[in-house]
Amino acid sequence: MGWTELNTKMMKAAIEMASLGVGKTYPNPAVGAIIARGDRIVARGYHRRAGLPHAEIEAIEAAGSRARGGALYVTLEPCNHCGKTPPCTEAIIRSGIKRVFVASRDPNPLVNGRGIRRLRRAGLTVRVGLMAKEAKALNEAYFVYMQQRRPFVTLKVAQTLDGMIATRSGDSKWITSARARAIARKLRGEAQAVLVGINTVIADDPLLVAFPRRRSHYMRCILDTHLRIPLKSRIVRTAKIYPTIVYYADASRGRIESLRRAGIEVRRVRLRGDGRVRVKDVVDDLASREVMHLFVEGGALTLSSFLKARIFDRIICFVAPRIIGGNGMSAFGGLSVKGLAESFSLCFKRMEPIGTDVLLELR
User: For residue range 225-234, what is the model confidence (pLDDT) as tens digits?
Assistant: First the structure.
């Protein structure tokens, strides 16, 4: 299906609007909308947060009477069901819009194809597929969740040139530059849940929020087989501010109650054969909570657990121009590969200089 230069220009503008909502709309997708008359944009909109108006509604309200006879460009298929907000299809029909350009169908079973069919039945011209790849890239987590019923999993690593995340003594502050760490926090802020292992909590005492001065919109998750998390750690002390789940396998009743009183949700899961928490159970539990994007930050055993279970979609790796040597802690030290045939073969998706460091995105 051919698209004009004007069609592409307008959809690019809609995608730019959608990008403003990335990481802020869970469990909804990030969506952008443009209303145009000829070659002129008369209104823009994007979905800001679950429960607030959808992108199409924002654009229609901004356009007012100027929407009549115009064209709507939207990055995801308009909904045709009642959720927290009324169906977008009915508002589009009432607005007098005549043509609708949809980048991608919505994989949500409540929507998939229904919105498009409703608009066509009402006499609107609907074309689908314009810049679909670019639009889907904004909502990878949403598509994975809807199609596979599990979170999109990002593994994040900050390592030296020789693959170490700390010295033998555990010194890791800071391997990468301040600029790289700022970008890592931004990526963390686009996720819905962040996860680390108990060794990282004990060694670094992290807060695990993207923006400490704001209430976190995501959950903090800790893998802690025997509930060793210190009661004075920042994670525990801030659990009543930021939702926090600790996944464990075995612990005393007293320990469990102490953490619950502190505001921690304690969730028991099964053990793997190597005596560590079964990450498949963790991911399944997060999926049941409508967590669509899980950001895993380590340490080495935790990262290795997700690799072993083959539960990951991408690896974000910040590489610093440092060398620690053989006594350092390897980023994936929990793996034990005997031959190249057993190794994990990945593809480079992106390579980008970040100050003195390099960001690698692998799939």
Answer: 999 999 999 9
